[in-house]
Every structure is written in C-alpha cells, then in structure tokens.
Design brief:
Distance between the termini: 43 Å
Structural class: alpha+beta
Largest sheet: 5 strands, antiparallel
CATH superfamily of the largest domain: PAS domain
CATH architecture of the largest domain: 2-Layer Sandwich
Shape: rod-shaped
Low-confidence stretches: 454-459
Helix content: 55-70%
Strand content: 15-25%
Radius of gyration: 53 Å
C-alpha cells in the first residue's frame, strides 16, 4: 500500500516537471504540424488527381458525344444500313478503347432512359432512372469519387444542336439551341490514384518516423538545455542551505532566473541582517543582564571585605543593590513583552475603545513624573475618537512615547499630545521640547537596546527596549509610526492606527 502511494506521489511530481512539459511542447510543436502537413498534401494531391482525371475523361467523352450526334447513333441504333453499321462499329470501338484505357464502363442512355450501349454488355435494353441521369437530362453535369471502392462516376450529356431558321428561311447561328437527347454514364477506375497515394504514404511514413526520431532527440536536448539554469539555481541554493557558501547567486541565462536569483539574494541578505541582529541582540541582552549582576557582585564583595560596616553604609549599599535588582527585573519584563510582541500569531484583544478617555488616563498617571521634572504636559483633542484596538498594547504605545518625551526633556520644558482622526485612521502625536535626536541616529532608534544618549542613559533609566516594543505594538494594529527630530530642539512622534481593525 505504501509503495503504491509512493509510486503515485513520484508520478505526480514527475508530471509537474518543467523539463517534461518543455519536452511535450516541443514534441507537439514538431509532430502535429508535420502530421497535418502530410494529410494536407495527400488530400490535396488526391483532389487534384481526381479533378484532372475527370477533366481528361470528360473531354474525351464530349468528343464521343459529338461523334454520336454526327452519326445519328441514338436515333439509328437499330438501322441495318451498311454506312451506319460501319460508323457504329467505329464508335463502339472508340467506346471500348476508352473503357479499356481507363478500366471503366460506359453506358449510353437515350431520352427514353433506355441503355442502348453498355461496354460491359450486361445492361443494354434496360431502363435506368437515377438521380445523376435525371439531373444530366436537366443540364446538370455531375461527378462523384468513391474513395472506398476507388472509382469515379460521371455523367456527360449528349447534346444535339438545333439551328432555327430566320425570316429569310436560312439557318442562323445566333438562333442555335441545344437539345439533350442522351446521357453517357461513365465509371472509370481510380486505382492508379490509389496506388500513387499508397506509395506516397509509405514514403511519408518513413519520413515521419525519421522526423519523430529527430524531434524526440531535439526535445530531449532542448528540455535539458532550457531547464539547466534552474538546475544551477537549485544547486546554488542547496550550497547556501548546506553552509558551503554564503555568496550571492547569479544565473543570468534568462530574465526569469535573474529575478529568482535577485529574490533569493534579497532573502539571503535579509537572513544575514536578521542573523546579525540576533547575534547583536544576544550580545546586548548578555551585556544588559550582566551589568546589574556585576554591580550587585561588586557591592556585595565590598560589604564582605569590610569589617564592622556602619549601618548607614550597609543601608546605602543595600539600596544600590535593590536598585540594580529592579533594573534587572525591568530588563527581563521588557524582554518578555518584546518577545510577545514579536510573535506573528499574537492574539489581540480587540474592542471598541474611547481613545480620548484612554489618553487622559495615561496622562494622569504620567503627570507626577512630569511635575517632578517641571515639564508641562498639554493634551489637545481635535474630535472624539472611538477605534477598534487592544487597550493594553495601545496603552504601552502611548505610555512609552509620552514617558520618553518627559524623561528626555529639559527643565521647564513642555510635552504636547494631540489626538485627531479622519474617516480611516486616528493619529496620536507627541511633540516635546527635549534634547532631540541626531539625524544619523533616527534609523536606529527602534533597535533593541539602542540608546541615543548613552552617557545619560543610566541616569535617566530605561532598558533601551521601549521604542522597539512600541513599534511592534503599532505594527500589530496594522498602523505606522514616524518621527521627526532636530537635535537640541525636540522631537515629534506620530502614530497612525486604523479606526477599524482588519485581521
């Protein structure tokens, strides 16, 4: 059972092969036109040969018909006159010769539908009434080629010309008319046509066989050559996958292979960036987690190395150690939050929320921090805003942006929060009068553990993960975050999030 399933799977995979499809296309493109051309040539030859045979025989029959009329063959068939008998024998000899020449049969039928002459001698005196004979008496010649039995049947009218007299009693050529007084029903063989066709078909069979062999060989070669660049791409990708190479691949044979190679190279570049980012992240995490532990160890060793440590110094050291432990805990908390944000399938608790009310609550919590730094916080709402969002994650976004604006501000500075909306998005804008961000640093502010002012980072606090968490939360809502900043003057962060969440 398993072997049958495996065989079917292999068959399906084989049928999906591009090389097989190219092979089949080349085969069909070569063989089908050849077969059609062969049958076209054969049929055309057969039609022309039959038409030529009919025309040749008809010409000779017309001559015989004229002889029949000139010798009154139809009207004097029973006459015993010596002159008529002589001409009758001559005409019969001509009929026999024609019949023998074309291996056919000629029947002469008078206007009473009676056979007066049969070159086979078996139907004389009989009455023949057929569609072809009737049509011929009405002036409609007919011919028919029977492919199955290989003979041609045709009818030829025997016309007697009647010249009408003019007013003077003389015959006038202009007044001449014709009267069909008989019909020649003729059957001639088409065996020579059939024999020629058979010879041509045998030769065509040989040529077709040679052509099929050539086309199959050409199809095999072409399918291999045309799919070789894709094989090169596969080998190059496998080398990268196995770790034998990390170079960009280049297969410029086709535009399609160039596009595939470019797409893979971009993916490879993206993977390298992610790998470098991962290594840098691990290094930063190790450093950030190691720093508080190192400080705690130094403080503990300092206490252990001293005897009779005063209670005040002991308390001071313990407060420093507690501060380092809080910092360590904050780093771990932010890392866990960031990991949750990074999950592609993270669940958002979406609900319709009053964004104005949420903003006021967050600013209410952060105003004590602002008063401590003597920073004025102003909230400006352009209109009531209700949106479908995750309250927890949106709170993180707003809190981080406003808190950063307060922390990295100057004394007696200000922070302005503006809430606005249009028919599709709502915007949360945070501007401040703080120290600003250098232009060269703007592209790195969302990186994990990245800090713009490293000299004051320990004094201000934070883990360097806030903006990374903020950006992840915004992207989870299918929103955007942008920043404009001038060093020494302040920064403006603008978050835009859809009013209606689309999963």
């Amino acid at each position: 059972m398993l072997s049958k399933i495996g065989y079917r799977i292999k068959t399906i995979i084989f049928l999906k092969s591009l090389r097989l499809r190219i092979f089949v296309i080349v085969m069909l493109a070569g063989i089908v036109p050849a077969v059609c051309l062969r049958y076209g040539i054969m049929n055309n030859y057969e039609e022309q040969a039959v038409e030529q045979r009919i025309a040749t025989v008809q010409n000779q029959l017309m001559v015989l018909a004229n002889h029949l009329i000139s010798n009154n063959y139809l009207t004097n068939y029973q006459s015993k006159e010596q002159s008529f008998q002589t001409s009758k024998e001559v005409i019969n000899a001509e009929l026999e010769m024609l019949s023998s020449l074309y291996e056919g049969r000629v029947l002469i039928i008078n206007n009473n539908y009676k056979v007066i002459k049969d070159t086979y001698g078996i139907s004389e005196g009989k009455i023949i009434i057929s569609e072809e004979v009737l049509k011929c008496f009405l002036g409609q010649n007919s011919s028919h080629y029977d492919k199955e039995h290989g003979y041609i049947e045709m009818t030829t009218p025997i016309v007697r010309t009647i010249r009408n007299a003019d007013d003077s009693g003389k015959n006038s050529n202009k007044a001449a008319s014709g009267e069909i007084v008989g019909v020649m029903l003729t059957s001639v063989t088409g065996e020579n046509i059939v024999a020629t066709l058979d010879k041509m078909n045998r030769k065509a069979d040989i040529l077709e066989l040679i052509l099929v062999v050539i086309i199959i060989s050409l199809a095999i070669v072409l399918s291999g050559v045309l799919t070789r660049p894709f094989h090169k791409i596969t080998l190059s990708i496998n080398e990268v996958k196995e770790g034998y190479s990390d170079k960009e691949i280049s297969v410029p044979d086709y535009i399609e292979t160039e596009r595939i190679a470019d797409a893979f190279n971009q993916l490879l570049g993206r993977m390298k960036v992610l790998d470098d980012s991962r290594q840098e992240f691990v290094a930063n995490v190790s450093h950030e987690l190691k720093t508080p532990m190192a400080s705690i160890k130094v403080l503990a060793e300092s206490l252990l190395s001293q005897e009779d440590v005063p209670a005040e110094l002991y308390r001071e050291f313990m407060e420093d150690m507690a501060s380092e432990i809080d910092r360590e805990n904050q780093i771990i908390t932010d890392l866990l939050a960031l990991v949750k944000m990074d999950k592609k399938a993270q669940a958002l608790n979406i609900a319709a929320l009053d964004i104005n009310h949420l903003t006021e609550l967050i600013l209410k919590r952060l105003r004590p921090l602002a008063r401590k730094k003597d920073v004025e916080v102003v909230f400006e709402s352009m209109r009531p805003v209700v949106a479908e969002v995750d309250e927890v994650k949106l709170s993180i976004v707003m809190t981080n942006l406003v808190e950063n604006a307060i922390k990295y501000n100057r004394e007696h500075g200000w922070v302005k929060v503006t809430l606005d909306a249009d028919h599709q998005y709502f915007s949360f804008r945070v501007s401040d009068s703080g120290m600003g961000i250098p232009q060269e640093e703007l592209g790195h502010i969302y990186e994990r553990f990245y800090r713009v002012d490293k000299s004051h980072s320990k004094e201000i606090g934070g883990t360097g993960l806030g903006l990374a968490i903020t950006r992840s939360a915004v992207l989870a809502h299918k929103g955007t975050i942008n920043v404009e900043s001038t060093e020494g003057e302040g920064s403006v962060f603008v978050v835009k999030i859809p009013l209606t969440y689309i999963a």
